[in-house]
Amino acid sequence: MQAYIMAFVIGGLICVIGQLLMDLTPLTPAHVLVLFVVLGGILSGLGLYQPLIDIGGAGATVPLPGFGHSLVSGTIEEVNKVGFWGIFSGAVKATAMGITAAVVFGLIIAIVFNPKG
Q1: Within 10 Å of residue 76's Cβ, how many Cβ atoms?
Q2: Cα(93)–Cα(75) distance, integer angstroms
Q3: What is the crossing angle of helices 64-82 and 86-113, to 10°?
Q4: What is the pLDDT at residue 117?
Q5: Angle at CA 72, nearest 5°, toward 10 and 1?
Q6: What is the secondary structure of the chain as a DSSP string?
Q7: What is the pLDDT of residue 106?
Q8: Which residues cross the membrane (predicted)?
């Protein structure tokens, strides 16, 4: 039960920060998206994002900073495994399943609901 509460709190705080950035600054949702992914990557590279994941679980991995963390941690892991060429393959291997799922489910929803545009 505590894991669910912490996921809710951490994920909620990330969302609150994003909403405040959009409400109180001239940043657009696209700016906030990029900012969160980059900050997740930077915090991951500095070793600061994994402790947040240890506390918040899915509340820290599902939002956008978690994607940045996946990119960086996948790259670091692959570089340690195969060397220099891991720079090019690590991020792709670490995020391929999530990106594929987003594309496939987005396509299914577009076919089922016949979007206008």
Answers
A1: 17
A2: 9
A3: 140
A4: 64
A5: 25
A6: -HHHHHHHHHHHHHHHHHHHHHHHSS--HHHHHHHHHHHHHHHHHTT-HHHHHHHHTHHHHSSHHHHHHHHHHHHHHHHHHH-TTHHHHHHHHHHHHHHHHHHHHHHHHHHHH----
A7: 93
A8: 5-22, 28-49, 94-113
User: Is residue 35 within 8 Å of residue 85, measured between CB atoms?
Assistant: no
The answer to whether residues 102 and 64 touch, using CB atoms and an 8 Å cutoff, is: no
Model's pTM, two decimal places?
0.84
- CA 86/CA 34 separation, integer angstroms: 23
What pLDDT is recorded for position 114? 79
* Residue 26 structure tokens: 């001239």
**Residue 67: closest CA among 42, 43, 95:** 95
Single-letter amino acid code for the residue at 33: L
Q: Residue 11 is encoded by which pair of tokens? A: 């994920």
Give pLDDT, residue 116: 75
The position carrying tokens 């997740």 is 40
The pair of structure tokens assigned to 56 is 């918040």
